[in-house]
Task: inverse folding
């Protein structure tokens, strides 16, 4: 079967750095998405990785290792507004999007 | 209006009611999606429409009936629902659904409660 694993919940401190991991076992791989979803709001696109390595976008970076079936989202200089759920999703060999259950990130002052 | 809008934002209905959820996208996209989001579970893809044609129906019970009159509008008609259908229903759109590598843009969802 196909599976995406993310921690259910994480807590971090304002101003700190946090890394949210995502591991996947899918039939093939055609890319990995990260989305952010604030409570009661729409998921919004953060990043898309298809090649190995780190991609940086401001305070947020996303890393991919296809050989390890692993990705992480790195959030720097955490702000209270970063409190949200972070969803990992993988495009499999049939170009189906397989979603993880999401990681709820709680930021404390 | 910009992006993807959904109405109503909240809906409470009895098991014998009939109601409809509406989604509209203002992005000029050709593909639209319905998802079900339950607490602590992955998003469940329900239906996909590409250029108004349904291209996917992921074994969704017939009490959920989608309708896509044009590329900008998507409806989900609900009838004789069960309490376990209570969830957040998200609509999304993308340029095409030819490959899931297109970024999907989501609406804020309809929080549905079935009594």
Result:
């Amino acid at each position: 079967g196909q599976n995406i694993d993310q921690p259910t919940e994480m807590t971090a401190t304002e101003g700190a750095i946090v890394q949210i991991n995502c591991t996947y076992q899918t039939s093939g791989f055609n890319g990995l998405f990260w989305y952010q979803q604030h409570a009661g709001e729409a998921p919004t696109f953060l990043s898309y990785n298809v090649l190995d390595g780190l991609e940086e976008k401001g305070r947020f970076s996303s890393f991919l290792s296809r050989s390890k079936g692993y990705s992480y989202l790195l959030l720097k200089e955490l702000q209270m507004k970063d409190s949200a759920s972070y969803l990992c999703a993988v495009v499999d060999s049939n170009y189906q999007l397989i979603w993880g259950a999401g990681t709820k990130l709680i930021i404390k002052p | 209006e910009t992006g993807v809008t959904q109405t109503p934002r909240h809906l409470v209905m009895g098991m014998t009611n009939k109601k409809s959820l509406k989604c509209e996208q203002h992005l000029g996209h050709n593909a639209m999606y319905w998802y079900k989001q339950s607490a602590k579970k992955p998003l469940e893809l329900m239906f996909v429409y590409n250029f108004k044609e349904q291209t996917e129906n992921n074994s969704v019970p017939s009490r959920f009936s989608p309708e896509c009159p044009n590329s900008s509008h998507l409806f989900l008609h609900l009838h004789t629902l069960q309490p376990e259908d209570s969830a957040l229903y998200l609509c999304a759109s993308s340029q095409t659904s030819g490959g899931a590598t297109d970024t999907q843009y989501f609406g804020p969802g309809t929080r549905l409660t079935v009594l």
User: Anything to note?
Assistant: The first strand of chain A starts at residue 3 and ends at 5. The interface with chain B takes residues 4, 8, 30-31, 33, 35, 40-45, 48, 50, 87, 89, 91, 95-102 of chain A (CB under 8 Å). The CA atoms of residues 44 and 103 of chain A lie 14 Å apart. The two ends of chain A are 40 Å apart (CA to CA).
